[in-house]
Amino acid sequence: MASFFGCQGGDQKIDEPNEETRMDWWRDARFGMFIHWGLYSIPAGEWKGTTNHAEWIRTTAEISLEEYDQFLDDFNPVEFDAEAWVKMAKDAGMKYITITSKHHDGFGLYDSKTSDFDVMATPFKRDILKELADACEKAGIKLCFYHSIMDWHHPDYLPRRGWEKNRSTEGAEFPRYVDYMKNQLKELLTNYGEIGVLWFDGEWEDTWTHEEGVELYDYIRSLQPNIIINNRVDKGRQGMQGLTAEGNFVGDFGTPEQEIPDTGLPGIDWESCMTMNDHWGYNKNDDNWKSSEELIQNLVDIASKGGNFLLNIGPKADGTFPQESIERLAAIGNWMNVNGASIYETQASPFEHLDWGRVTQKQINGGTRLYLHVFDWPENGELRLGGIRNEAIQASLLSAASTQLTIRRDEDALVIELPKISPNEIDEVIYLDIKGEP
Ligand code: JFZ
User: Measuring from atom 3 of ligand 1, which residue has the nearest CA?
Assistant: First the structure.
């Protein structure tokens, strides 16, 4: 496969599984759940009167290692129910879950034999990832791990954060940290079944190099040859941009964060990750929730540009999801129940900007099914789609496939007559079958 702008996997080597097969499930899935959970959910974003913290709290509130370690004694999420979490993801229409096996604070959500800073050192003493792996397996959801390269806890990790001047670096050896991380990853890729994605992060610090990134990529693929790895493993990102600069960098997909690229990027796999409010980890003071409508339209917008949507939940310290998140997942699920076919296994829109909404498409029986996502219902009841020369076969509401809509041709445009009022204000989907390609 030719090198392309964005990112490029290690798939150019022979004797590796074909990339088409390896990426297939992920490309079809379109929608996943991100979970940021760890010790930081205990302070819930608040520290000594300041309230704008989350999973970075150890750094943003400048908490010493000793003080942070005390959260171990308080981590006891007795309400945690892996099957309930997986059910909420599945009912929302999500096909995979990407959870923080370890975030920057260094705390592991699983039983790690190589670390004392893990869930087994808390009163909870249950392997959260094992329980999730079992629940995911049962439900047919792919489990994926977010794993931070940066580690603020391990004595051999360098550099220290700027404010941690007093924490000694004496005797610290970065290569020993890399071995530790690899041993942890080996546990994660050996004891939890097939893992869908390894979502690395924190690769931007000076200590991490391109060579280490390539080696880590190859190491992960040697443990699970079919796994998909994001682009935050190598040094290819431009600054904090989610996509990789041009060049020879490993990574299977780009990771735009809290944004949706204006146009799709043909030939590049990408996944936008996004929060429902303004924090990844749980912040009890953050009420800036996006509406369900905005989240559904984001999912559609992303699918119409050929990307995946990784929507975040920051569970609370008791092991439950915030109520606002639960409500939004349910609303998305209601919409996906009716309209999932317009998201899964679809490709990017063949059209440039449309005033009224977005388009996704699928090849069906030698023709094309276009899914017209109408965000703004036309007042004159006519939906206009320009630039289609091929013959239309039929158009229907996806929510009521028996309703045939009248289609007429107006030069190179197809005009579809719609009901006067949209059956679904958020996004009513019409499918339009045409002969050949649009
Ligand atoms: C990272 C983490 O530091 C953060 O805590 C969270 O896990 C998030 C998903 O990823 O933060 C980043 C990484 C990249 C960008 C911004 C924040 N970026 O590309 O703009």
Answer: 202
Of the listed ranges 83-87, 143-147, 220-224, 348-352, the least confidently predicted one is: 348-352
Give the tens place of pLDDT for each residue, 296-317. 999 999 999 999 999 999 999 9
Identify which of 52, 151, 240 to mutate to test ligand 1's pocket (most ligand atoms within 8 A of the CB). 240
Residue 218 token pair: 């190859």
Question: How far is CA 367 from each of CA 78, 86, 347, 400, rounded to the nearest angstrom?
Answer: 52, 36, 14, 21
- Predicted TM-score (pTM) of the model is 0.94
Residue 292 belongs to what H/E stretch?
helix 292-304
Q: Using one digit for the tens of pLDDT, what is the confidence trace for 247-296?
A: 678 889 888 888 888 776 677 899 999 999 999 999 999 999 999 999 99
Name the pairing type of β-strands 382-385 and 271-274.
Answer: unpaired
Please give the Cα distance from 358 to 208 (Å, whole number).
Answer: 40
Q: Please report the beta strands in 119-169, taking only residues with DSSP state E, as ranges in sequence order.
A: 142-148
Pocket probe for ligand 1: among 161, 205, 257, the residue whose CB has the most ligand atoms within 8 Å is 257
Q: Are 306 and 350 in contact (CB under 8 A)?
A: no
Alpha-helical regions (H) of 92-155 = 128-139
One-letter amino acid identity for 281? G
Give the Cα separation of 273 and 412 in Å (integer).
37
